[in-house]
Amino acid sequence: MTTAAVRGIDAATTTNAQLIDWVREIADLTGPDEVVWCDGSDAEWDRMTSRLVEAGSFVKLNEKKKPNSFLAVSDPDDVARVEERTFICTADETGAGPTNNWVDPAEMKSTMTQLYRGCMRGRTMYVIPFCMGPLDANPPMLGVEITDSEYVVASMKIMTRMGTDVVKLLDERGDQYVKCLHSVGAPLEEGQADVAWPCNDTKYISHFPETREIWSYGSGYGGNALLGKKCYALRIASAIAHDEGWLAEHMLILKLISPADEVHYVAAAFPSACGKTNLAMLQPTIPGWRAETVGDDIAWMRFGEDGRLYAVNPEFGFFGVAPGTNWKTNPNAMRTIEQGNSLFTNVALTDDGDVWWEGLEGDPQHLTSWTGEDWTPDSDKKAAHPNSRYTTPISQCPVVAPEWQDPNGVPISAILFGGRRKTTVPLISESRDWQHGTFMGATMSSEMTAAAKGGLGQVRRDPMAMLPFLGYNVGHYFQHWINVGKGADADKLPKIFYVNWFRRGEDGGFLWPGFGENSRVLKWAIERIEGKAAAEETAIGYVPTPEALDLEGLDVPLADVEAALTVDPEEWKAELPLIEEWFEKVGDNLPTSMRDELEALRLRLGA
Ligand code: SAT
Ligand code: MN
Protein backbone atom coordinates (compact mmCIF):
# COMPACT_ATOMS: atom_id res chain seq x y z
CA MET A 1 0.00 0.00 0.00
CA THR A 2 1.39 3.39 -0.90
CA THR A 3 1.16 6.35 1.38
CA ALA A 4 -1.10 8.24 -0.99
CA ALA A 5 -3.65 5.46 -0.80
CA VAL A 6 -3.86 5.67 2.96
CA ARG A 7 -6.77 7.92 3.71
CA GLY A 8 -6.25 10.33 6.53
CA ILE A 9 -2.48 10.51 6.44
CA ASP A 10 -2.60 14.16 5.40
CA ALA A 11 -5.34 15.05 7.83
CA ALA A 12 -2.64 15.52 10.46
CA THR A 13 -3.62 18.21 12.89
CA THR A 14 -0.01 18.73 13.93
CA THR A 15 2.71 20.85 12.39
CA ASN A 16 5.35 18.58 13.91
CA ALA A 17 7.10 17.40 10.74
CA GLN A 18 9.08 14.75 12.62
CA LEU A 19 5.84 13.23 13.94
CA ILE A 20 4.14 13.32 10.54
CA ASP A 21 7.15 11.53 9.04
CA TRP A 22 7.01 8.83 11.69
CA VAL A 23 3.28 8.27 11.18
CA ARG A 24 3.86 8.04 7.43
CA GLU A 25 6.67 5.55 7.93
CA ILE A 26 4.50 3.33 10.16
CA ALA A 27 1.54 3.55 7.76
CA ASP A 28 3.85 2.44 4.95
CA LEU A 29 5.07 -0.47 7.05
CA THR A 30 1.77 -1.67 8.47
CA GLY A 31 -0.53 -0.91 5.51
CA PRO A 32 -3.82 0.12 7.13
CA ASP A 33 -6.87 1.07 5.04
CA GLU A 34 -7.11 4.39 6.77
CA VAL A 35 -5.25 6.62 9.21
CA VAL A 36 -7.20 8.56 11.81
CA TRP A 37 -5.69 11.26 14.04
CA CYS A 38 -7.50 11.11 17.37
CA ASP A 39 -8.82 14.32 18.91
CA GLY A 40 -9.94 12.93 22.27
CA SER A 41 -13.48 14.35 21.85
CA ASP A 42 -16.70 12.83 23.16
CA ALA A 43 -17.84 12.47 19.54
CA GLU A 44 -14.79 10.32 18.89
CA TRP A 45 -15.60 8.18 21.96
CA ASP A 46 -19.12 7.71 20.59
CA ARG A 47 -17.75 6.73 17.18
CA MET A 48 -15.27 4.27 18.70
CA THR A 49 -17.72 2.64 21.09
CA SER A 50 -20.50 2.39 18.43
CA ARG A 51 -18.05 0.77 16.07
CA LEU A 52 -17.06 -1.73 18.76
CA VAL A 53 -20.69 -2.48 19.61
CA GLU A 54 -21.45 -3.08 15.93
CA ALA A 55 -18.44 -5.37 15.62
CA GLY A 56 -19.62 -7.39 18.63
CA SER A 57 -16.53 -6.37 20.64
CA PHE A 58 -18.43 -4.21 23.14
CA VAL A 59 -21.75 -4.72 24.86
CA LYS A 60 -23.44 -1.47 25.81
CA LEU A 61 -24.48 -1.68 29.45
CA ASN A 62 -27.87 -0.69 30.82
CA GLU A 63 -27.94 3.11 30.57
CA LYS A 64 -29.80 3.42 33.89
CA LYS A 65 -27.26 1.34 35.80
CA LYS A 66 -23.99 2.25 34.09
CA PRO A 67 -24.50 5.21 31.76
CA ASN A 68 -22.23 5.45 28.72
CA SER A 69 -20.40 2.26 29.75
CA PHE A 70 -19.38 -0.89 27.93
CA LEU A 71 -18.27 -4.46 28.53
CA ALA A 72 -15.48 -6.08 26.53
CA VAL A 73 -14.38 -9.68 26.81
CA SER A 74 -10.96 -10.61 25.58
CA ASP A 75 -9.57 -13.68 23.91
CA PRO A 76 -9.08 -16.25 26.74
CA ASP A 77 -5.34 -16.20 26.00
CA ASP A 78 -5.05 -12.44 26.28
CA VAL A 79 -6.05 -11.66 29.85
CA ALA A 80 -2.97 -10.26 31.60
CA ARG A 81 0.50 -8.84 31.17
CA VAL A 82 2.89 -11.34 29.62
CA GLU A 83 6.13 -10.92 31.52
CA GLU A 84 7.99 -13.60 29.57
CA ARG A 85 7.25 -11.66 26.36
CA THR A 86 8.26 -8.28 27.83
CA PHE A 87 11.70 -7.03 26.78
CA ILE A 88 14.07 -4.23 27.68
CA CYS A 89 16.27 -3.61 24.68
CA THR A 90 19.40 -1.70 25.66
CA ALA A 91 22.62 -1.57 23.65
CA ASP A 92 24.42 -3.41 26.40
CA GLU A 93 22.83 -6.41 28.16
CA THR A 94 23.87 -5.09 31.60
CA GLY A 95 21.63 -2.10 30.97
CA ALA A 96 18.54 -4.31 31.20
CA GLY A 97 19.96 -6.18 34.17
CA PRO A 98 19.34 -9.67 35.44
CA THR A 99 15.61 -9.21 36.09
CA ASN A 100 14.48 -8.28 32.57
CA ASN A 101 14.38 -10.18 29.31
CA TRP A 102 16.98 -8.60 27.08
CA VAL A 103 17.35 -8.55 23.30
CA ASP A 104 19.70 -6.32 21.32
CA PRO A 105 17.67 -3.32 20.03
CA ALA A 106 18.66 -3.74 16.38
CA GLU A 107 17.81 -7.43 16.47
CA MET A 108 14.45 -6.78 18.16
CA LYS A 109 13.58 -4.05 15.68
CA SER A 110 14.41 -6.30 12.78
CA THR A 111 12.27 -9.16 14.18
CA MET A 112 9.36 -6.89 14.95
CA THR A 113 9.56 -4.98 11.67
CA GLN A 114 8.87 -8.29 9.94
CA LEU A 115 5.85 -8.83 12.16
CA TYR A 116 4.58 -5.29 11.63
CA ARG A 117 4.83 -5.51 7.84
CA GLY A 118 1.23 -5.38 6.57
CA CYS A 119 -0.12 -6.16 10.06
CA MET A 120 -2.81 -3.43 9.93
CA ARG A 121 -4.25 -4.52 6.60
CA GLY A 122 -8.02 -4.18 6.57
CA ARG A 123 -7.93 -2.06 9.74
CA THR A 124 -7.77 1.57 10.75
CA MET A 125 -4.57 2.97 12.16
CA TYR A 126 -5.18 5.46 14.96
CA VAL A 127 -2.70 8.11 16.04
CA ILE A 128 -3.22 9.00 19.69
CA PRO A 129 -1.40 12.09 21.01
CA PHE A 130 -1.31 11.81 24.82
CA CYS A 131 0.30 13.28 27.88
CA MET A 132 1.24 11.51 31.11
CA GLY A 133 0.67 13.89 33.99
CA PRO A 134 -0.75 17.41 33.79
CA LEU A 135 -0.50 19.28 30.50
CA ASP A 136 0.95 22.29 32.33
CA ALA A 137 3.86 20.32 33.81
CA ASN A 138 7.33 21.56 33.06
CA PRO A 139 8.09 19.73 30.86
CA PRO A 140 4.85 18.02 29.80
CA MET A 141 5.54 14.28 29.41
CA LEU A 142 4.25 13.60 25.92
CA GLY A 143 3.66 10.44 23.95
CA VAL A 144 2.06 9.33 20.74
CA GLU A 145 0.58 5.86 20.46
CA ILE A 146 -0.11 4.39 17.06
CA THR A 147 -2.55 1.49 17.32
CA ASP A 148 -4.99 -0.52 15.24
CA SER A 149 -7.27 -1.18 18.23
CA GLU A 150 -10.41 0.85 18.91
CA TYR A 151 -10.44 -0.67 22.43
CA VAL A 152 -7.06 0.99 23.00
CA VAL A 153 -8.32 4.35 21.69
CA ALA A 154 -11.33 4.24 24.02
CA SER A 155 -9.22 3.08 26.98
CA MET A 156 -6.54 5.73 26.39
CA LYS A 157 -9.23 8.43 26.53
CA ILE A 158 -10.00 7.34 30.09
CA MET A 159 -6.46 6.56 31.22
CA THR A 160 -4.54 9.55 29.77
CA ARG A 161 -4.97 13.16 28.80
CA MET A 162 -5.27 12.77 25.06
CA GLY A 163 -6.21 14.58 21.89
CA THR A 164 -6.19 18.11 20.53
CA ASP A 165 -4.72 19.87 23.60
CA VAL A 166 -1.73 17.56 23.44
CA VAL A 167 -1.20 18.26 19.73
CA LYS A 168 -0.48 21.91 20.56
CA LEU A 169 2.30 20.79 22.89
CA LEU A 170 3.65 18.28 20.37
CA ASP A 171 3.87 21.05 17.77
CA GLU A 172 6.44 22.82 19.94
CA ARG A 173 8.49 19.86 21.02
CA GLY A 174 10.09 18.23 18.00
CA ASP A 175 11.05 14.69 18.93
CA GLN A 176 10.57 15.17 22.67
CA TYR A 177 7.87 12.56 23.04
CA VAL A 178 7.79 8.80 23.55
CA LYS A 179 6.99 6.90 20.36
CA CYS A 180 4.60 4.07 21.13
CA LEU A 181 3.71 1.58 18.42
CA HIS A 182 1.02 -1.02 19.00
CA SER A 183 -0.71 -3.58 16.84
CA VAL A 184 -2.96 -6.47 17.75
CA GLY A 185 -1.23 -8.34 14.92
CA ALA A 186 -4.39 -9.49 13.17
CA PRO A 187 -4.59 -8.20 9.59
CA LEU A 188 -7.86 -8.79 7.74
CA GLU A 189 -7.97 -10.07 4.20
CA GLU A 190 -10.53 -8.72 1.77
CA GLY A 191 -13.94 -9.95 2.90
CA GLN A 192 -12.59 -11.67 6.05
CA ALA A 193 -14.84 -11.18 9.08
CA ASP A 194 -13.24 -9.77 12.21
CA VAL A 195 -13.33 -11.46 15.61
CA ALA A 196 -14.53 -9.75 18.78
CA TRP A 197 -11.03 -9.54 20.29
CA PRO A 198 -8.32 -9.64 17.63
CA CYS A 199 -4.85 -10.61 18.87
CA ASN A 200 -1.96 -12.87 17.92
CA ASP A 201 -0.35 -15.90 19.61
CA THR A 202 3.00 -14.24 19.01
CA LYS A 203 3.43 -11.40 21.46
CA TYR A 204 6.18 -8.86 22.06
CA ILE A 205 6.12 -5.99 24.52
CA SER A 206 9.43 -4.28 23.75
CA HIS A 207 11.00 -1.19 25.26
CA PHE A 208 13.92 0.83 23.95
CA PRO A 209 14.79 3.06 26.92
CA GLU A 210 17.77 4.66 25.19
CA THR A 211 15.67 6.00 22.32
CA ARG A 212 12.47 6.32 24.41
CA GLU A 213 10.43 3.99 22.21
CA ILE A 214 7.90 1.22 22.87
CA TRP A 215 6.91 -1.45 20.35
CA SER A 216 4.08 -3.78 21.26
CA TYR A 217 2.62 -6.55 19.13
CA GLY A 218 0.02 -9.28 19.45
CA SER A 219 -1.87 -8.38 22.64
CA GLY A 220 -4.82 -6.04 23.13
CA TYR A 221 -4.83 -6.30 26.91
CA GLY A 222 -4.21 -3.56 29.54
CA GLY A 223 -0.56 -3.12 30.35
CA ASN A 224 0.48 -4.77 27.08
CA ALA A 225 -1.53 -2.38 24.92
CA LEU A 226 -2.31 0.87 26.77
CA LEU A 227 1.27 1.94 26.37
CA GLY A 228 1.08 5.12 28.47
CA LYS A 229 0.71 3.11 31.65
CA LYS A 230 3.31 0.52 32.66
CA CYS A 231 5.37 0.78 29.45
CA TYR A 232 5.84 4.55 29.46
CA ALA A 233 5.04 5.78 32.96
CA LEU A 234 7.10 3.03 34.62
CA ARG A 235 9.58 1.26 32.31
CA ILE A 236 10.61 4.18 30.09
CA ALA A 237 10.05 6.81 32.80
CA SER A 238 12.16 4.88 35.34
CA ALA A 239 15.07 5.04 32.89
CA ILE A 240 14.49 8.77 32.29
CA ALA A 241 14.21 9.32 36.06
CA HIS A 242 17.51 7.51 36.61
CA ASP A 243 19.22 9.83 34.12
CA GLU A 244 17.60 12.96 35.53
CA GLY A 245 17.68 12.25 39.28
CA TRP A 246 14.05 11.59 40.11
CA LEU A 247 11.87 8.52 40.79
CA ALA A 248 9.16 6.83 38.68
CA GLU A 249 7.52 4.34 41.00
CA HIS A 250 4.71 1.77 41.13
CA MET A 251 2.97 3.64 43.96
CA LEU A 252 -0.41 4.96 44.90
CA ILE A 253 -0.65 8.48 46.35
CA LEU A 254 -2.99 8.99 49.28
CA LYS A 255 -3.87 12.15 51.19
CA LEU A 256 -4.63 11.72 54.89
CA ILE A 257 -6.31 14.42 56.94
CA SER A 258 -6.24 14.20 60.74
CA PRO A 259 -9.05 15.40 63.00
CA ALA A 260 -6.92 18.53 63.56
CA ASP A 261 -6.95 19.10 59.77
CA GLU A 262 -3.28 18.28 59.40
CA VAL A 263 -2.52 16.91 55.96
CA HIS A 264 -0.03 14.17 55.11
CA TYR A 265 0.54 12.53 51.75
CA VAL A 266 1.60 8.90 51.62
CA ALA A 267 3.00 6.97 48.64
CA ALA A 268 2.76 3.20 48.73
CA ALA A 269 4.18 0.44 46.54
CA PHE A 270 2.48 -2.95 46.30
CA PRO A 271 2.63 -5.51 43.50
CA SER A 272 -0.28 -5.63 41.04
CA ALA A 273 -3.55 -6.91 42.53
CA CYS A 274 -2.49 -6.43 46.18
CA GLY A 275 -5.05 -3.74 47.01
CA LYS A 276 -3.36 -0.52 45.88
CA THR A 277 -6.59 0.85 44.44
CA ASN A 278 -8.47 -0.01 47.63
CA LEU A 279 -5.85 1.73 49.78
CA ALA A 280 -5.81 4.72 47.43
CA MET A 281 -9.55 5.22 48.04
CA LEU A 282 -9.46 4.25 51.69
CA GLN A 283 -12.40 5.14 53.87
CA PRO A 284 -10.85 5.48 57.35
CA THR A 285 -12.68 3.72 60.16
CA ILE A 286 -11.18 5.97 62.86
CA PRO A 287 -13.48 8.85 63.77
CA GLY A 288 -12.36 12.25 62.51
CA TRP A 289 -9.80 10.95 60.01
CA ARG A 290 -10.40 11.52 56.31
CA ALA A 291 -8.63 10.33 53.19
CA GLU A 292 -8.51 11.56 49.60
CA THR A 293 -7.08 10.05 46.46
CA VAL A 294 -4.30 11.47 44.31
CA GLY A 295 -3.40 8.30 42.40
CA ASP A 296 -3.82 4.54 42.62
CA ASP A 297 -0.93 3.04 40.68
CA ILE A 298 1.97 5.27 39.63
CA ALA A 299 3.89 8.10 41.29
CA TRP A 300 6.49 10.32 39.68
CA MET A 301 8.52 11.93 42.47
CA ARG A 302 10.85 14.89 42.18
CA PHE A 303 12.40 17.19 44.76
CA GLY A 304 10.72 20.56 45.16
CA GLU A 305 12.50 23.82 45.84
CA ASP A 306 11.87 23.34 49.56
CA GLY A 307 13.87 20.07 49.48
CA ARG A 308 10.84 17.81 49.95
CA LEU A 309 9.92 14.98 47.61
CA TYR A 310 6.79 15.80 45.56
CA ALA A 311 4.66 13.18 43.80
CA VAL A 312 2.57 13.51 40.66
CA ASN A 313 0.13 10.90 39.38
CA PRO A 314 0.79 10.62 35.63
CA GLU A 315 -2.54 8.91 34.95
CA PHE A 316 -6.05 10.19 34.23
CA GLY A 317 -8.05 7.04 35.03
CA PHE A 318 -8.09 3.94 37.20
CA PHE A 319 -7.47 0.48 35.73
CA GLY A 320 -8.67 -1.41 38.78
CA VAL A 321 -9.05 -5.11 39.52
CA ALA A 322 -12.80 -5.85 39.60
CA PRO A 323 -13.08 -9.08 41.66
CA GLY A 324 -13.27 -8.31 45.36
CA THR A 325 -14.28 -4.68 44.73
CA ASN A 326 -17.60 -3.95 46.44
CA TRP A 327 -19.47 -1.46 48.60
CA LYS A 328 -17.64 -2.69 51.69
CA THR A 329 -14.08 -3.09 50.41
CA ASN A 330 -14.04 -0.01 48.22
CA PRO A 331 -17.20 2.12 48.29
CA ASN A 332 -15.41 4.99 46.55
CA ALA A 333 -14.47 2.84 43.57
CA MET A 334 -18.11 1.74 43.38
CA ARG A 335 -19.25 5.38 43.42
CA THR A 336 -16.72 6.19 40.71
CA ILE A 337 -17.86 3.50 38.27
CA GLU A 338 -21.53 3.99 39.07
CA GLN A 339 -21.37 7.36 37.35
CA GLY A 340 -20.62 5.55 34.11
CA ASN A 341 -18.26 6.60 31.31
CA SER A 342 -16.38 3.38 32.07
CA LEU A 343 -15.15 0.24 30.37
CA PHE A 344 -15.27 -3.20 31.94
CA THR A 345 -13.07 -6.01 30.68
CA ASN A 346 -13.64 -9.73 31.34
CA VAL A 347 -16.34 -9.33 33.99
CA ALA A 348 -19.74 -11.07 33.81
CA LEU A 349 -22.92 -9.58 32.33
CA THR A 350 -26.18 -9.65 34.28
CA ASP A 351 -29.50 -10.36 32.58
CA ASP A 352 -30.48 -6.71 32.95
CA GLY A 353 -27.36 -5.42 31.23
CA ASP A 354 -25.22 -4.62 34.25
CA VAL A 355 -21.85 -6.06 35.30
CA TRP A 356 -21.02 -8.52 38.06
CA TRP A 357 -17.91 -10.16 39.46
CA GLU A 358 -16.94 -12.41 42.33
CA GLY A 359 -17.17 -10.51 45.60
CA LEU A 360 -19.67 -7.92 44.36
CA GLU A 361 -22.91 -7.54 46.30
CA GLY A 362 -26.09 -9.04 44.87
CA ASP A 363 -26.98 -12.63 44.48
CA PRO A 364 -27.36 -13.16 40.74
CA GLN A 365 -29.07 -16.40 39.77
CA HIS A 366 -28.05 -16.17 36.15
CA LEU A 367 -25.22 -14.41 34.33
CA THR A 368 -23.28 -14.53 31.11
CA SER A 369 -19.75 -15.30 32.22
CA TRP A 370 -16.68 -13.58 30.79
CA THR A 371 -16.24 -16.56 28.48
CA GLY A 372 -19.78 -16.06 27.14
CA GLU A 373 -21.29 -19.09 28.91
CA ASP A 374 -24.42 -19.29 31.02
CA TRP A 375 -23.48 -19.00 34.66
CA THR A 376 -25.52 -19.92 37.74
CA PRO A 377 -24.49 -20.08 41.41
CA ASP A 378 -23.83 -23.82 40.86
CA SER A 379 -21.30 -23.23 38.10
CA ASP A 380 -17.84 -24.47 38.93
CA LYS A 381 -16.18 -21.75 36.86
CA LYS A 382 -15.73 -18.14 37.87
CA ALA A 383 -18.14 -15.64 36.32
CA ALA A 384 -15.43 -12.99 35.97
CA HIS A 385 -11.75 -13.52 35.20
CA PRO A 386 -9.59 -13.01 38.35
CA ASN A 387 -7.73 -10.21 36.53
CA SER A 388 -10.87 -8.58 35.13
CA ARG A 389 -10.79 -4.79 35.26
CA TYR A 390 -12.73 -1.56 35.33
CA THR A 391 -11.38 1.45 33.47
CA THR A 392 -12.88 4.64 34.87
CA PRO A 393 -12.07 8.38 35.05
CA ILE A 394 -10.27 9.59 38.20
CA SER A 395 -12.25 12.83 37.99
CA GLN A 396 -15.40 10.86 38.91
CA CYS A 397 -13.91 9.62 42.18
CA PRO A 398 -15.92 11.25 44.98
CA VAL A 399 -12.84 11.51 47.20
CA VAL A 400 -10.34 12.72 44.62
CA ALA A 401 -8.06 15.33 46.20
CA PRO A 402 -8.66 18.78 44.69
CA GLU A 403 -4.89 19.06 44.03
CA TRP A 404 -4.69 15.81 42.05
CA GLN A 405 -3.79 17.70 38.88
CA ASP A 406 -1.25 20.05 40.46
CA PRO A 407 1.75 19.96 38.09
CA ASN A 408 4.08 20.40 41.09
CA GLY A 409 2.64 17.36 42.83
CA VAL A 410 2.11 16.81 46.55
CA PRO A 411 4.82 16.57 49.25
CA ILE A 412 5.27 13.00 50.48
CA SER A 413 5.64 12.35 54.22
CA ALA A 414 5.80 8.56 54.15
CA ILE A 415 6.59 5.78 51.72
CA LEU A 416 5.08 2.35 52.32
CA PHE A 417 6.38 -0.84 50.80
CA GLY A 418 4.24 -3.94 51.06
CA GLY A 419 3.50 -7.35 49.67
CA ARG A 420 1.26 -10.30 50.20
CA ARG A 421 2.88 -12.60 52.77
CA LYS A 422 1.12 -15.29 54.82
CA THR A 423 3.97 -15.37 57.35
CA THR A 424 7.04 -13.54 58.70
CA VAL A 425 6.37 -9.92 57.71
CA PRO A 426 4.60 -7.91 60.44
CA LEU A 427 1.66 -5.58 59.92
CA ILE A 428 4.01 -2.59 59.88
CA SER A 429 7.62 -1.79 60.64
CA GLU A 430 9.46 1.50 60.31
CA SER A 431 12.94 1.72 58.83
CA ARG A 432 15.83 3.19 60.80
CA ASP A 433 16.79 5.56 57.98
CA TRP A 434 16.61 6.00 54.19
CA GLN A 435 19.25 3.37 53.43
CA HIS A 436 17.54 0.80 55.63
CA GLY A 437 14.23 1.77 54.01
CA THR A 438 15.77 1.21 50.60
CA PHE A 439 16.85 -2.24 51.82
CA MET A 440 13.25 -2.94 52.88
CA GLY A 441 12.05 -2.01 49.40
CA ALA A 442 14.87 -3.86 47.68
CA THR A 443 14.08 -7.10 49.52
CA MET A 444 10.29 -6.83 49.36
CA SER A 445 8.54 -10.09 48.54
CA SER A 446 5.05 -11.13 47.60
CA GLU A 447 2.93 -14.07 46.61
CA MET A 448 2.10 -13.79 42.89
CA THR A 449 -1.38 -12.72 41.74
CA ALA A 450 -3.47 -13.08 38.59
CA ALA A 451 -2.24 -9.73 37.21
CA ALA A 452 0.50 -11.59 35.35
CA LYS A 453 0.34 -14.93 33.59
CA GLY A 454 1.66 -17.90 35.59
CA GLY A 455 3.17 -18.57 39.02
CA LEU A 456 0.03 -17.85 41.08
CA GLY A 457 0.72 -17.88 44.84
CA GLN A 458 4.48 -18.35 44.53
CA VAL A 459 6.60 -16.06 46.76
CA ARG A 460 8.96 -13.93 44.73
CA ARG A 461 11.16 -10.92 45.44
CA ASP A 462 9.52 -7.88 43.97
CA PRO A 463 11.76 -4.90 44.74
CA MET A 464 9.70 -1.75 45.34
CA ALA A 465 6.91 -3.65 43.46
CA MET A 466 8.88 -2.76 40.33
CA LEU A 467 10.13 -6.20 39.27
CA PRO A 468 7.94 -6.32 36.13
CA PHE A 469 8.16 -2.57 35.52
CA LEU A 470 11.80 -1.55 35.80
CA GLY A 471 13.33 -0.20 32.58
CA TYR A 472 16.97 -0.76 33.58
CA ASN A 473 19.38 -2.73 35.75
CA VAL A 474 17.95 -3.48 39.20
CA GLY A 475 21.33 -3.00 40.92
CA HIS A 476 21.64 0.47 39.39
CA TYR A 477 18.08 1.12 40.53
CA PHE A 478 18.96 0.36 44.17
CA GLN A 479 22.00 2.63 43.87
CA HIS A 480 19.75 5.32 42.40
CA TRP A 481 17.49 5.11 45.45
CA ILE A 482 20.54 5.44 47.73
CA ASN A 483 21.77 8.43 45.72
CA VAL A 484 18.39 10.14 45.90
CA GLY A 485 18.58 9.85 49.69
CA LYS A 486 22.18 11.05 49.86
CA GLY A 487 21.43 14.12 47.78
CA ALA A 488 18.62 15.19 50.10
CA ASP A 489 18.22 16.80 53.47
CA ALA A 490 17.59 13.76 55.72
CA ASP A 491 14.96 15.59 57.78
CA LYS A 492 12.91 16.32 54.70
CA LEU A 493 12.95 12.82 53.23
CA PRO A 494 9.81 10.71 53.60
CA LYS A 495 10.02 8.04 56.32
CA ILE A 496 9.94 4.51 54.92
CA PHE A 497 7.71 1.74 56.30
CA TYR A 498 7.14 -1.90 55.36
CA VAL A 499 3.56 -3.23 55.69
CA ASN A 500 1.79 -6.56 55.27
CA TRP A 501 -2.01 -6.66 55.44
CA PHE A 502 -2.04 -10.33 54.44
CA ARG A 503 -0.48 -12.24 57.35
CA ARG A 504 -2.41 -15.36 58.36
CA GLY A 505 -3.01 -17.04 61.69
CA GLU A 506 -2.72 -20.71 62.54
CA ASP A 507 -6.29 -21.29 61.35
CA GLY A 508 -5.34 -19.89 57.93
CA GLY A 509 -7.49 -16.76 58.34
CA PHE A 510 -6.22 -13.20 57.96
CA LEU A 511 -4.95 -11.74 61.25
CA TRP A 512 -5.79 -8.18 60.24
CA PRO A 513 -9.10 -7.13 58.62
CA GLY A 514 -7.48 -4.70 56.15
CA PHE A 515 -9.42 -2.22 53.96
CA GLY A 516 -10.73 0.79 55.97
CA GLU A 517 -9.09 -0.57 59.14
CA ASN A 518 -5.69 0.02 57.54
CA SER A 519 -6.26 3.66 58.54
CA ARG A 520 -5.22 2.58 62.05
CA VAL A 521 -1.85 1.49 60.73
CA LEU A 522 -1.47 4.69 58.69
CA LYS A 523 -2.35 6.76 61.74
CA TRP A 524 0.53 5.13 63.63
CA ALA A 525 2.90 5.90 60.76
CA ILE A 526 1.81 9.56 60.73
CA GLU A 527 2.20 9.78 64.50
CA ARG A 528 5.70 8.34 64.19
CA ILE A 529 6.54 11.09 61.71
CA GLU A 530 5.19 13.61 64.17
CA GLY A 531 7.20 11.98 66.97
CA LYS A 532 4.06 11.08 68.92
CA ALA A 533 3.72 7.27 68.77
CA ALA A 534 5.51 4.54 70.69
CA ALA A 535 7.43 1.75 69.00
CA GLU A 536 9.53 -1.19 69.92
CA GLU A 537 12.92 -1.60 68.31
CA THR A 538 13.28 -5.02 66.70
CA ALA A 539 15.86 -6.63 64.44
CA ILE A 540 13.94 -5.55 61.35
CA GLY A 541 12.97 -2.03 62.40
CA TYR A 542 10.54 -0.20 64.70
CA VAL A 543 7.24 -2.00 65.26
CA PRO A 544 4.25 -0.57 67.11
CA THR A 545 3.40 -1.93 70.52
CA PRO A 546 -0.27 -3.04 70.41
CA GLU A 547 -1.09 -0.10 72.72
CA ALA A 548 0.44 2.35 70.25
CA LEU A 549 -2.09 1.36 67.59
CA ASP A 550 -5.51 2.98 67.79
CA LEU A 551 -7.70 -0.12 68.19
CA GLU A 552 -10.80 1.57 69.53
CA GLY A 553 -13.93 0.02 68.07
CA LEU A 554 -11.94 -2.60 66.16
CA ASP A 555 -13.70 -5.94 66.19
CA VAL A 556 -10.62 -8.17 66.24
CA PRO A 557 -9.19 -10.23 69.13
CA LEU A 558 -6.13 -8.55 70.64
CA ALA A 559 -4.23 -11.82 70.24
CA ASP A 560 -4.64 -11.55 66.47
CA VAL A 561 -3.32 -7.99 66.44
CA GLU A 562 -0.37 -9.11 68.55
CA ALA A 563 0.28 -11.99 66.19
CA ALA A 564 0.10 -9.62 63.20
CA LEU A 565 2.74 -7.40 64.85
CA THR A 566 5.08 -10.20 65.88
CA VAL A 567 8.65 -10.22 64.66
CA ASP A 568 9.72 -13.84 65.02
CA PRO A 569 13.54 -14.08 64.81
CA GLU A 570 13.29 -17.70 63.65
CA GLU A 571 11.03 -16.77 60.73
CA TRP A 572 13.40 -13.93 59.84
CA LYS A 573 16.44 -16.19 60.07
CA ALA A 574 14.70 -18.40 57.51
CA GLU A 575 14.24 -15.34 55.32
CA LEU A 576 17.98 -14.55 55.23
CA PRO A 577 19.01 -17.22 52.70
CA LEU A 578 16.14 -16.11 50.45
CA ILE A 579 17.38 -12.51 50.53
CA GLU A 580 20.91 -13.82 49.98
CA GLU A 581 19.70 -15.77 46.94
CA TRP A 582 17.96 -12.67 45.61
CA PHE A 583 21.10 -10.56 46.06
CA GLU A 584 23.09 -13.24 44.24
CA LYS A 585 20.67 -12.83 41.39
CA VAL A 586 21.08 -9.03 41.40
CA GLY A 587 24.77 -9.82 41.02
CA ASP A 588 27.74 -7.49 40.62
CA ASN A 589 25.69 -4.34 40.46
CA LEU A 590 24.24 -4.76 43.93
CA PRO A 591 25.33 -1.69 45.94
CA THR A 592 27.64 -2.58 48.84
CA SER A 593 25.30 -0.65 51.12
CA MET A 594 22.59 -3.23 50.47
CA ARG A 595 24.96 -6.02 51.40
CA ASP A 596 25.93 -4.05 54.52
CA GLU A 597 22.25 -3.83 55.46
CA LEU A 598 21.86 -7.59 55.07
CA GLU A 599 24.89 -8.23 57.27
CA ALA A 600 23.60 -5.79 59.88
CA LEU A 601 20.26 -7.58 59.89
CA ARG A 602 22.01 -10.92 60.28
CA LEU A 603 23.91 -9.57 63.30
CA ARG A 604 20.78 -8.14 64.90
CA LEU A 605 19.06 -11.50 64.48
CA GLY A 606 22.08 -13.21 66.04
CA ALA A 607 22.24 -15.51 63.02
O1 SAT B 1 -2.28 -4.74 32.94
S1 SAT B 1 -1.63 -3.75 33.82
O2 SAT B 1 -0.18 -3.96 33.80
O3 SAT B 1 -1.91 -2.40 33.35
C1 SAT B 1 -2.25 -3.91 35.36
C2 SAT B 1 -1.31 -4.39 36.39
O4 SAT B 1 -0.70 -5.43 36.26
O5 SAT B 1 -1.20 -3.70 37.42
MN1 MN C 1 -0.07 -1.59 38.97
TrEMBL record:
GTP binds at residues 273-278, 389, 420, 515-518. This is Phosphoenolpyruvate carboxykinase [GTP]. Belongs to the phosphoenolpyruvate carboxykinase [GTP] family. One of its GO terms (cellular component) is cytosol. HAMAP family: PEPCK_GTP. Mn(2+) binds at residues 230, 250, 297. It catalyses: oxaloacetate + GTP = phosphoenolpyruvate + GDP + CO2. InterPro entries: PEP_carboxykin_GTP_CS (IPR018091), PEP_carboxykinase_C (IPR013035), PEP_carboxykinase_GTP (IPR008209), PEP_carboxykinase_GTP_C (IPR035077), PEP_carboxykinase_GTP_N (IPR035078), PEP_carboxykinase_N (IPR008210). It is found in: Cytoplasm. GO terms for biological process: cellular response to glucose stimulus; gluconeogenesis; glycerol biosynthetic process from pyruvate; oxaloacetate metabolic process; propionate catabolic process; response to lipid; response to starvation. Substrate binds at residues 81, 221-223, 272, 387-389. It comes from Pseudonocardia sulfidoxydans NBRC 16205. Its cofactor is Mn(2+). SUPFAM superfamilies: PEP carboxykinase N-terminal domain, PEP carboxykinase-like. It comes from the Bacteria. The keyword Zinc does not apply. The keyword GTP-binding applies. Coiled coil: none annotated. Catalyzes the conversion of oxaloacetate (OAA) to phosphoenolpyruvate (PEP), the rate-limiting step in the metabolic pathway that produces glucose from lactate and other precursors derived from the citric acid cycle. Residues 246-602 form the Phosphoenolpyruvate carboxykinase C-terminal P-loop domain. Residues 367-388 are annotated as: Disordered.
